[in-house]
UniProtKB/TrEMBL annotation:
Organism phylogeny: Bacteria, Bacillati, Bacillota, Clostridia, Eubacteriales
Entry annotated with the keyword Lipid metabolism: yes
Record protein name field: CDP-diacylglycerol--glycerol-3-phosphate 3-phosphatidyltransferase
Cell membrane found in the keyword field: yes
E.C. number: 2.7.8.5
Organism whose genome encodes this protein: Desulforamulus aeronauticus DSM 10349
Pathway: Phospholipid metabolism; phosphatidylglycerol biosynthesis; phosphatidylglycerol from CDP-diacylglycerol: step 1/2; Lipid metabolism
Length: 181
């Protein structure tokens, strides 16, 4: 059990903490939940950094890292729908894209093709994290300016989700046909 895998597991263990903070209706719960979410999300970049830097990429890490990411984001989106902060269609688009890319990668893997994370996929992740945090902060930092940053950030996240999903389908389909990637 190396450091990158421990960070990935920490992200998974923070999900129930995040959910508990949100659902227990404690004072400043949404702000605390945003902090827990940021802490959990930050382990994503750290685990990859340490895995590559220390040459500690493992099969367990390759499986658990994307699973932890999907569980964290999906949990937050489902809670936001439950709280009435976002529409269900937003969560369906974002979660559906994750299933689609995971399925495409699984098909590619059976053909010996590895579909790595793209730059667009990384932007998608960043915009989703920013949007989720903004939604939990209730526009706190932008109230004085009268800017509804949470909804705008979520719109940007949906845009990057759709764009990166289409990019994965396009590139994955063509490279699977050629036997490359």
């Amino acid at each position: 059990m190396n450091l990158p895998n421990r960070l990935t597991l920490a992200r998974m263990f923070l999900i129930p903490v995040f959910l508990a903070v949100v659902t227990l209706k404690i004072k400043y719960g949404d702000i605390i939940a945003a902090g827990v979410f940021v802490l959990a999300a930050s382990t994503d970049g750290l685990d990859g950094y340490f895995a590559r830097k220390n040459k500690q990429v493992t099969t367990l890490g390759k499986f658990m890292d994307p699973l932890a990411d999907k569980l964290l984001v999906s949990s937050a989106l489902i809670v936001l729908v439950e709280l009435g902060k976002i529409s269900a269609w937003v969560a369906v688009i974002i979660i559906g894209r994750e299933f689609m890319v995971t399925g495409l990668r699984a098909i590619a893997a059976t053909e010996g093709v590895v579909i790595s994370a793209s730059t667009l996929g990384k932007w998608k992740t960043v915009t989703q994290i920013v949007a989720i945090v903004a939604m939990f902060l209730h526009n706190l930092t932008f109230q004085l300016l009268g800017v509804e940053i949470g909804r705008a950030a979520m719109a940007v996240a949906v845009f990057f989700t759709i764009w990166s999903g289409a990019d994965y389908i396009s590139k994955g389909w063509h490279l699977l046909k050629k036997g490359e990637y």
